[in-house]
Amino acid sequence: MSQISRDDVAHLARLARLALTDAELDGFAGQLDAILSHVSAIQAVDVTGVEATDNPLKDVNVTRSDTVVAGLSQGEALAAAPRAAENRFAVPQILGESQ
């Protein structure tokens, strides 16, 4: 027994403002019916006494703790730059901007 008809798919397509061809309507009707059949089969499974789980793994996000470490001084950072001017990185002008 079909759970979704071609007319149902056409109605959904209109609601979603999708222009589907007749072949697409027929194809999607079959695909959606197969999906709904699988969902029905899963829903029919007796889960009495089975505890619900949202995640079977009990691990949590493992991260290192934040520790403050000394960074580069301005001079050390600029020492590695190809060009520096007025204690800043010097970069090529872009987009025709004036300085």
Automatic annotation (TrEMBL):
Record's keyword annotation contains Oxidoreductase: no
Enzyme class: ligase
Pfam (any one): GatC
EC numbers on record: 6.3.5.-
GO BP field: glutaminyl-tRNAGln biosynthesis via transamidation; regulation of translational fidelity; translation
Keywords, in A-Z order: ATP-binding, Ligase, Nucleotide-binding, Protein biosynthesis, Transferase
Keyword RNA-binding in annotation: no
Catalytic reactions on record: L-glutamyl-tRNA(Gln) + L-glutamine + ATP + H2O = L-glutaminyl-tRNA(Gln) + L-glutamate + ADP + phosphate + H(+); L-aspartyl-tRNA(Asn) + L-glutamine + ATP + H2O = L-asparaginyl-tRNA(Asn) + L-glutamate + ADP + phosphate + 2 H(+)
A GO term for molecular function: transferase activity
Classification via PANTHER family: GLUTAMYL-TRNA(GLN) AMIDOTRANSFERASE SUBUNIT C, MITOCHONDRIAL
UniProt family annotation: Belongs to the GatC family.
HAMAP family in the cross-refs: GatC (MF_00122)
Quaternary structure and interacting proteins, as annotated: Heterotrimer of A, B and C subunits.
Function of the molecule: Allows the formation of correctly charged Asn-tRNA(Asn) or Gln-tRNA(Gln) through the transamidation of misacylated Asp-tRNA(Asn) or Glu-tRNA(Gln) in organisms which lack either or both of asparaginyl-tRNA or glutaminyl-tRNA synthetases. The reaction takes place in the presence of glutamine and ATP through an activated phospho-Asp-tRNA(Asn) or phospho-Glu-tRNA(Gln).
Protein's name in the database: Aspartyl/glutamyl-tRNA(Asn/Gln) amidotransferase subunit C
Organism this protein belongs to: Mycolicibacter hiberniae
Name of the coding gene: gatC
